[in-house]
Amino acid sequence: MAEAVTPVEWTDEGVRLIDQRALPTREVYVVARTVEEVARAIVEMVVRGAPAIGIAAAMGVALAARNGARGSALEAAVALLRGTRPTAVNLFWALDRMQRVAAAGEPDSALPGRLLEEAQRIWSEDREMCLAMGEHGAPLLPMGARVLTHCNAGGLATAGWGTALGVIRSAHRQGRVAHVYADETRPFMQGARLTAWELLQARIPVSVICDNMAAHLMKLGRIDAVLVGTDRVAANGDIANKIGTYGVALCAHAHGIPFYVVGPSSTVDLACAHGDAIPIEERAAREVTHVGETRLVPEGVPVENPAFDVTPARLVTALITEKGVLRAPYGPALARAFGTSSGPQA
Ligand code: MRU
Q1: What confidence tens digit (pLDDT) does each residue in 29-76 have?
Q2: Residue of 126, 224, 231, 238 marked catalytic
Q3: Is the C-beta atom of 158 inside 6 A of ligand 1?
Q4: Which of 111, 192, 200, 202 is the most exposed place for a label (fewest CB within 10 A)?
């Protein structure tokens, strides 16, 4: 994993995060010392990406306990974290795990240690799941493939290595990836800023394209496969991912290009029957009206900013998980791989 970044990490001072808002121009690390600081870092996208926010939230609970929270104060810390971002189910999955530990009846003095162990387990399991998805997914790509990805589903969005970028990294080692096209991913620019930065570091050839160029490249025959991450997989195989993913999936379908979705079990929500039940985060208008300090949209003109969209299962060629590659019909395939679940408490 040498060349992958570690975006979230426990240290003696607190939770150390690479500030993803500053990339690619500045590589700045911040330390969140309280649960409130962790919650703010998630809301403001210092840390982002479905698995990474789950890990950060788990560490936030451990931090609250280390800072003395017990009982209702610990519950309040968990509630604060639950309210940060609604779409990625990894957040709720991780917090459920932390709450189970908190409810296990540990003596007060042992609780911080037990919660920290659990948070660190969530972190290390995520790294292992990413590597396993890389191994399962890489053989799906032909040698020398030109792949398109949307948003950032890389090391920055996980404990390291990445989901979609993890498959790309593993496939690149096998000579299967000749070039990556990264959609810039308006409005937060995760593709232009983060995916391009990560792939440059990993020495994987990458070009950034504007989101509206993908269909054109597909029509010209310059894309062999699409690989994206996901924030929530519903029980029927519908998937939520960064806004724009649905459009990419439709284009891929129209051009007969495989559309692969990469996500670990922490992203699967069997309690969510279909994609329409996935809550879609609406973010601040300013992300659309401005780039940095520069206003793009006339004052007084309203904008919309849904941060995610849902791609229906029928457009997904395969789901790459740590348990293997799942194919349609996804309902039975997901139930076989991940069993029934009462699901996380959103
Ligand atoms: O709003 P973000 O940047 O947190 O959205 C991230 C994505 O949509 C990723 O594609 C998704 O979390 C999968 S990451 C492994």
Answers
A1: 999 999 999 999 999 999 999 999 999 999 999 999 999 999 999 999
A2: 231
A3: yes
A4: 200
